[in-house]
Each structure stands twice: as structure tokens, then as C-alpha cells.
């Protein structure tokens, strides 16, 4: 089964590289960046061989623990996990989860992250080259560490996939927010509050000692113990690391068995949902564009993929700005509104991709491209524009600059309007596939690849260009000319409105001209 699944993944990858140029380019870019970083880390690991044993052990345990946490958290919160061999696809086959786990684990290590992690883990042999027994144990620990990382990744992503069902999307989204804050905001807050500055080498060494007895650091600390002459303790840690691997494998097997026996439902289980009145949707005017807007509003409220976009957009701005504010630079908080507006505007750059096959209904029913673009923009602006206005005003007040409220609102609203227009345009020119509705919103779809990066970069460039009048006015009014605050409000909103109009018009024509091509692009690789 291991050889079968490994060969299947390699064949699927080969076929995709042959048929999709963007996937090939993305793999090359990822390989250059990932393996380059792994090479630098490996050189650093070898150089640690000349450092004192205590220093080397502390660095290795910390770095190894971060790698394990990265494998477990990053696929869920940021880039997603490659589901070329999605376990749900085996649900109709007479195969047990116990038989799939070894093969899927090996297949999960066949990628740029797995190869990079393997190189770094093997480089630790050079770290402990001064002790032959420690180097020999490091050779054994390298595959154990890699398997720990892969199993941790598969366990967390399978949990996320099972959690994001139609019934549990709200609770799961809340848990995702809590986890995101715990991972990203806490270190920034500690650094800004002065706790991080109070740490001395002894405290760092004490934390590393604690990590060395946790599942995160056991496998990395074992060779260090042997190098220090504590052979018994090193072997104990190695044995415990094997127990961790067995436990992770057992947990993943149970989760996988549940996925095979009860695949996550993507609908309401065949039930016809009851018609419930909605205070906003029931009051929208009639018309094609407003119908698209109503559906878009339902997506923003109920689709976990959209919930993740909103949460990450707001927190991506809140985390660094809060850390900067705690560090004493409160004036940076005036950027809160424009920054959130910038991130939210980017969220609609691939709205057709989130529609997936549902976009075919627009083509079959003859929805005009302009109405499609306008409806999606309305679905975002109805709730995002008030949010940006509130955050912009709050940022100015919290920064101690209430006189900049008009300038902040002008910059934020202009960025949101102009960015929405840029997204309407780029969404028609550079669409790409994403995870299908009902799936794990943290899962990635490799079909996007570099085209997704190009689309996002182009949208960013266009959004910043349209938002420059408001941003420039905010900078000038905050640094030199306070009287420019009110003119900046008018200038920013005006420039954003022009950018919105241009993006909707040009993007609408592109949808009319390229409708079938857009549908084919967002369905590729799904």
C-alpha cells in the first residue's frame, strides 16, 4: 500500500506538471525558496558543532519545536495542505484507515516541505559530529522527526476538515480565531510589553529544557543528551519520541476512519432548508445585480471560506499594529482602517473561484458581466464599508490624533472602494481554482499556483495605485499639514469611487467576453 500510494501521488503530480504550466512554475519557485532556506538552515546546524553543547542543544530544541509547530499550524492557518491524495476519495473503496496511514504519511513527506525538513533534520548529524554516539542517534532521530512533523500536519488538517461541516462552521471559525490569536498575537504582545526583553539566557535555557520533555522537542533533544554523556536520558527521550509518533499515528487513524465511514457532508443532508426572514436580504431591491449581491451576502455570512478571509484580514492588521503600539509608536494605529480595507478589498479578487461550478448558472441564465461585478461589489461594501469607517475613526482616536479621523476615513474608504474595483477587474482577468464549497476552508488547491500569486500581486498594485491620493493625504495631514484632513476625506473617497467604477465597467466587459474561459479556469484541478 505504501508503494501504491506513493506511486499514485507521483503520477498525479507528474500529470499536473505536464498539463498545467502554472503548477510547474509554482513548484519550481517553491523548490528554490524552500530548499534554499533548508540549505541555509543546514549550514547553520553544521556550524553549531563548534558551539558549546548547552548552546547547541538550546538552539536545536527551539528550532526543532518551531518546525513541528509550523507543520501542525501553518497548513491550517495559512497556506493549506496539499490534498492530492484526499482521504475522502477513498471512502467508497474497501480499504481500512490502518492500511492508508503508512502510505499517506510517506506520500505527505514527498514535497518541498518534506524534503526541506528531511535535509535540516539530517544536518543535525553534523551538529553532533563531535560525538560518534550522538551523531549515530541523530541519524535515527532524523526520520522520526520528519514523521512526527507529517503526522502532526495530517492530524490537525484532518481535524479541521472534520470540524468545518455545514452544522459546525460557526464554532469551528471561532476556534480558528482563538488559535490564530494564540499563535500570532501572544508573541507580539510579549515582545511589546517588555516581557520578551526581560528574558535572559538562563530563562531561555530553562524554556528549552521544558520543551525537550514535550512532544515538540523530545526527538531533537535526544542526541544532545548523548553528546553531554547522558546516554540513558537520551535513549529515554528517543523512546518517548517513538511513543509520540505511535500516538499521533493512532489519533490520525481514528480520524481517518471516521472520515472514511462518515465523509463530511457538503449539504444539509438532503433536507430542504426552511425559509427564514432576513432583515437585510429581504429588503434588497429587485434586479439581477441585487440578486447577485444577496447571494454574495449569504456567502459572507455562512461560508467558512469567507469567514476565514474576514478573520485573517482583520487580525493580519491588528497583530502588527498592536505590537507596534505597545512598543510606543501609537501613531501607527492611524493605519488600521486603510490596512484592513486593503486586505478586505483583495478578498473579492477571486470571488468566481469560490463560486466554482455555480458560476455556470450565471452563464446559462445570461447574467450580464457588469451586473455580476456590481452585485459582488455590493455584497462586500454593504458591510465592509461601515466596518472600515469605524476602524479608521477608532485608529485615529487610539493613536491620540482625533483630528485625523476624516483623513483616516478618506484613506480607508478610498482604499476599499478602489481595491474592490481592482478585484472586480483582476477577478475576470486572472481567475484561479480554490477549495470547493463544503470542504476545509484551510485546505489549499494546487491548481492556483503562481497564477494565484500573480493575481493577488496585480490586485495589490492596482489597489495601492487607486488609494494613493487618500494615503498621501493621510501622511501629509499627520506629519505636516493638519488642515488637509477634510480635503483628504473628499479626495480619497472620490479617487476610490472612480477606481471602483472603472474596475466594474472593464471587469464586466471581461466577464462578458471570457465567461466560458473563466469557468474553465476556476474548475481546473478540482
Describe it.
The chain is mostly helical. Helices cover about 75% and strands about 0% of the residues. Helix 2 (about 20-45) packs parallel to helix 5, helix 13 runs parallel beside helix 17 and helix 13 packs antiparallel against helix 18 (about 450-480). The longest helix has about 40 residues, at about 485-525. The chain starts with a helix and ends with a helix. Mean pLDDT is about 80; it is low at about 165-170, about 195-200 and about 265-275.
Number of domains: 2
Largest sheet: number of strands, sense, barrel closure: none
Q: How far apart lie the N and C ends?
A: 25 Å
> What class do helices, strands and sheet pairing give?
mainly alpha
Number of helices: 19
The oligomeric state of the chains shown is: single chain
Catalogue the unreliable spans: 166-170, 193-198, 265-274
**Count the strands?**
0
Q: What overall form do the CA principal axes indicate?
A: globular
Tell me the fraction of residues in β-strands, as a range. Answer: under 5%
Rg is 26 Å
Mean pLDDT: 80
Helix content: over 70%
What is the H/E order?
HHHHHHHHHHHHHHHHHHH
Summary keywords:
526 residues; mainly alpha; 2 domains
Characterize this entry briefly.
With 526 residues, the chain is mostly helical. It is built from 19 helices and no strands.
Q: What are the SSEs and their pairings?
A:
Layout (H helix, E strand, L loop, with lengths): L1 H18 L1 H27 L5 H25 L19 H13 L2 H16 L4 H32 L5 H25 L7 H11 L6 H10 L3 H31 L26 H15 L1 H23 L9 H11 L4 H5 L3 H6 L4 H30 L6 H25 L19 H31 L5 H39 L3
Helix pairs in contact: 1-2, 1-4, 2-5, 3-6, 3-8, 3-9, 4-6, 4-10, 5-6, 6-9, 6-10, 7-12, 9-10, 11-12, 11-16, 12-13, 13-16, 13-17, 13-18, 16-17, 16-19, 17-18, 17-19, 18-19
Amino acid at each position: 500500500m505504501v508503494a501504491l500510494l506513493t506511486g499514485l501521488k507521483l503520477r498525479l503530480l507528474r500529470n499536473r506538471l505536464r498539463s498545467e504550466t502554472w503548477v510547474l512554475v509554482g513548484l519550481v519557485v517553491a523548490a528554490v525558496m524552500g530548499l534554499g532556506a533548508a540549505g541555509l538552515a543546514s549550514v547553520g546546524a553544521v556550524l553549531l558543532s563548534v558551539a558549546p553543547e548547552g548552546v547547541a542543544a538550546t538552539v536545536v530544541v527551539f528550532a526543532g519545536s518551531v518546525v513541528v509547530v509550523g507543520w501542525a499550524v501553518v497548513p491550517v492557518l495559512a497556506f493549506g495542505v496539499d490534498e492530492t491524495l484526499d482521504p475522502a476519495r477513498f471512502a467508497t473503496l474497501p480499504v481500512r484507515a490502518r492500511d492508508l496511514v503508512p502510505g499517506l504519511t510517506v506520500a505527505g513527506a514527498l514535497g518541498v516541505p518534506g524534503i526541506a525538513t528531511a535535509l535540516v533534520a539530517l544536518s543535525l548529524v553534523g551538529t553532533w559530529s563531535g560525538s560518534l554516539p550522538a551523531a549515530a542517534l541523530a541519524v535515527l532521530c532524523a526520520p522520526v522527526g520528519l514523521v512526527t512533523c507529517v503526522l502532526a500536519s495530517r492530524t490537525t488538517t484532518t481535524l479541521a476538515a472534520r470540524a468545518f461541516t455545514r452544522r459546525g462552521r460557526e464554532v469551528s471559525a471561532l476556534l480558528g480565531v482563538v488559535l490564530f490569536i494564540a499563535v500570532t498575537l501572544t508573541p507580539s504582545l510579549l515582545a511589546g510589553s517588555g516581557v520578551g526583553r526581560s528574558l535572559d539566557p538562563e530563562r531561555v535555557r530553562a524554556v528549552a529544557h521544558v520543551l525537550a520533555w514535550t512532544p515538540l522537542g523530545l526527538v531533537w533533544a535526544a542526541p544532545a543528551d548523548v553528546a553531554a554523556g547522558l546516554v540513558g536520558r537520551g535513549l529515554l527521550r528517543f523512546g518517548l519520541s517513538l511513543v509520540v509518533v505511535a500516538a499521533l499515528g493512532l489519533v490520525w487513524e481514528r480520524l481517518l476512519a471516521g472520515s472514511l465511514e462518515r465523509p463530511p457532508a457538503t449539504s444539509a443532508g438532503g433536507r430542504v432548508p426552511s425559509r427564514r426572514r432576513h432583515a437585510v436580504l429581504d429588503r434588497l431591491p429587485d434586479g439581477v445585480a441585487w440578486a447577485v449581491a444577496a447571494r454574495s451576502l449569504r456567502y459572507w455570512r455562512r461560508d467558512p471560506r469567507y469567514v476565514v478571509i474576514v478573520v485573517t484580514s482583520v487580525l493580519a492588521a491588528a497583530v502588527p499594529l498592536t505590537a507596534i503600539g505597545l512598543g510606543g509608536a501609537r501613531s501607527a494605529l492611524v493605519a488600521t482602517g486603510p490596512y484592513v480595507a486593503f486586505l478586505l478589498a483583495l478578498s473579492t479578487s477571486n470571488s468566481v473561484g469560490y463560486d466554482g461550478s455555480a458560476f455556470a448558472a450565471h452563464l446559462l441564465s445570461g447574467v450580464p458581466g457588469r451586473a455580476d461585478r456590481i452585485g459582488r461589489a455590493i455584497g462586500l461594501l454593504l458591510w465592509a464599508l461601515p466596518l472600515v469607517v469605524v476602524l479608521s475613526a477608532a485608529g485615529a482616536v487610539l493613536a491620540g490624533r482625533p483630528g485625523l479621523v476624516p483623513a483616516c476615513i478618506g484613506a480607508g474608504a478610498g482604499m476599499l472602494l478602489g481595491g474592490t474595483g481592482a478585484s472586480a477587474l483582476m477577478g475576470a482577468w486572472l481567475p484561479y481554482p480554490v477549495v470547493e464549497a463544503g470542504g476545509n476552508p484551510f485546505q489549499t488547491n494546487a491548481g492556483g499556483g503562481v497564477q494565484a500569486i500573480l493575481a493577488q500581486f496585480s490586485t495589490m498594485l492596482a489597489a495601492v495605485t487607486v488609494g494613493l491620493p487618500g494615503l498621501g493625504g493621510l501622511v501629509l495631514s499627520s506629519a505636516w499639514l493638519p488642515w488637509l484632513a477634510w480635503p483628504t476625506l473628499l479626495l480619497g473617497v472620490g479617487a476610490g469611487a472612480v477606481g471602483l467604477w472603472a474596475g466594474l465597467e472593464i471587469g464586466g466587459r471581461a466577464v462578458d467576453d471570457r465567461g466560458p474561459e473563466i469557468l474553465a479556469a476556476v474548475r481546473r484541478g478540482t
